[in-house]
Amino acid sequence: MNLATTPQRLLSPAPVRGLPADFRWGVATSSYQIEGAAAEDGRTPSIWDTFCRVPGAVEGGEHGDVACDHYHRMPEDVELIAGLGVDTYRFSLAWPRIQPGGRGPANTKGLDFYKRLIDELRGRGVTPWITLYHWDLPQELEDAGGWPARDTALRFAEYASLAYEALGDRVEHWTTLNEPWCSAMLGYAYGLHAPGRRDPGDAMAAVHHLLLGHGLAAGALREAAGANPLELGITLNLGTATPETDSEADREACRRADGMGTRLYLDPLVHGRYPEDIVADLAAQHIELPVREGDLAAIATPLDVLGVNFYRGMQFSGVTEDGSPLDAEGLPVVRAVDRDLPRTAMDWEITPTELTDLLVRLERDYGLPTVITENGAAFDDTVAADGSVPDADRTAYLADHIDAVVAARAQGADVRGYFAWSLMDNFEWAYGYAKRFGIVRVDYDTQTRTLKDSAKWYRDTIRLTRDAGTA
């Protein structure tokens, strides 16, 4: 089954029942994907500026030099955000804009942009929610070793302190990292994202140093905040791992998938230890996490909130489609199983009920308040003759996943907010501009923004939910 053969549901806005009055509604973006102005006001290259110039690395050879030109169009974008009725805007700071080269003093012009953005948001009644790192590592730090090098974690904590010193009087909500799995695995193991390296040992060193950087930055922010309000978190991309059958091979495949995708991050963050089974799996591959004394205590600096980026759950098997055992150099590996489910334009299965399963599991195993910091879908939108952008498939996707949050809360999960990804179409990493996740369409030739039908539905749903009061 795919979306082309699935009847589209035309949904009307309605109040969402089962959410508290203080439930957060938001939209999210990231710096490299929307800002542009790649060489303006002191910003230096990031690993994505470099990676985009590697032939074949990004579809169409595209890059973020202009992107959505948000750097120059920020006030009108804030007006658009406020018009959606959301109370929170999650965005990321560009490290090479704030601290060019990843070392030394802060860049005043770079900080001034974010001060203006934050002041514009606050002036329109929208709460700023900062992510310190959404993948745009200063190229100079990659040249010095990147995330596999321990020093990068120290540099990240220094950058976090500079950002908080400048913006902490305006912002209460701080996220350290966005999706460290992607940074480590796509960037250093599989070579699909910047910096494009392919070394499993480097990737595991990057995992540890990303988490260490988070912990050191979190400690620095807590110390700097003192008695001032601070809600501190990290954002992970998380899914579910379900076995295709109840066979030992399939259950083992799910153990490994869940261990590498979820427990490798949350166990040290919450429990102060890496999962023993995954450490043993890595040792069998002659890979050791570069843990030093005190690292795990730093990584386990208490969190106030866990950001959850959810796009899909997955089913796994430990055998090939014809039933043969899977192995790589004598080690069991996993196979993702294709199910007969509707899919997005990314060819990702649409699995809203598995979001409920994930959130209930997170509550049970880790006990942290959560916010859905990203959830959304790419579809092949077209502009209608009247200029509108009908996207019933995206509206249905959002509605089903919001319902999944309500269902998780009914089962005891402490979910406190939902942020749609993304505010607008933008640079979609290795896909360039070919995939559109936005609830707002961007015409990249003119930079015109147009509310898609999903944005209008989201806006009206939020308004009706607020009008209905506490459910």
Automatic annotation (TrEMBL):
Its EC number is 3.2.1.21. It comes from Streptomyces parvus. One of its GO terms (biological process) is cellulose catabolic process. Keywords: Carbohydrate metabolism, Cellulose degradation, Glycosidase, Hydrolase, Polysaccharide degradation. The active site is at E179, E374. The keyword Hydrolase applies. It holds the Pfam family Glyco_hydro_1. The keyword Hydrolase applies. This is Beta-glucosidase. It is an enzyme of class 3 (hydrolase). InterPro entries: GH (IPR017853), GH_1_N_CS (IPR033132), Glyco_hydro_1 (IPR001360), Glyco_hydro_1_AS (IPR018120), Glyco_hydro_1_beta-glucosidase (IPR017736). It catalyses: Hydrolysis of terminal, non-reducing beta-D-glucosyl residues with release of beta-D-glucose. Belongs to the glycosyl hydrolase 1 family. GO terms for molecular function: beta-glucosidase activity.
